[in-house]
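REQUEST ID: PR-0412
SUBMITTED BY: lab tech R.K.
PRIORITY: routine
TASK: structure prediction, single protein chain
INPUT:
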Amino acid sequence: MLDNIQTTTNYIKSRIGDFVPEAGIILGTGLGGLVNEIEVEKQLMYSNIPDFPMSTLEFHSGKLIFGTLAGKKVVAMQGRLHYYEGYSMQQITFPVRVLKMLGIKTLFVSNASGSLNPAFKKGELMVIDDHINLQPLNPLVGRNNTELGPRFPDMSEPYKKHLIEKALQIAAANNITCHKGVYVAVTGPNLETRAEYKYLRIIGGDAVGMSTVPEVIVANHMGLPVFAISVLTDEGFPEDLKPVSVEEIIAVASQAEPKLTLILKELIATL
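STATUS: complete
OUTPUT:
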């Protein structure tokens, strides 16, 4: 894997010249609008990058965007990968390793998720304070390469507290409802049953989604600080569970996206 990471990194560097990003951004479902705030210098299609996996979802663009956001050099993944697409955990997290090799010092992650907490409503935001991993595999399974990180990485602070506090302050200053909570990662692609939503709430979850955690594990493995935020696109309340479609989820995410963009933009400006 190390050879593949180096090959991919070298190719990207050959295309972006002396551009060194300070921050990496992973944009979730319906949340690609942040790209409009970036002063773009270079765009690379995933399909043109050696060994770089491609998103199979029609609502994920599949581009690496290099440019300036809030005065900082950034690289944004417009389109992420999911375990339910059939990729291995190593493939899903491969881009994170490449972004670290390109020079990023902090990883910012966004996603669309379903609320498990009755106090957290559809269309609101939730900064991720911690997570519960219910996905069946871990991206660190297999022989460990000490050049990438330790065999047993610590996960006592997977999401950096100082970034969480800054984000909540930014939200409050802009009258944005933004909660802090625990994200539960499941496999998908189906949404959950009433009994599953109830179980996820009982074990401590505030929101549930199908991404993010593999990337966060690998970022921590490589010593990369992480900030993550969810747009709550639907409500998994067993006592009043309503059917939801992907189209509805994308619509809610798109409506909430400007609030998420504002928080991320102001947070990145503080780096």
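NOTES: The radius of gyration is 17 Å.
REVIEWED BY: pending
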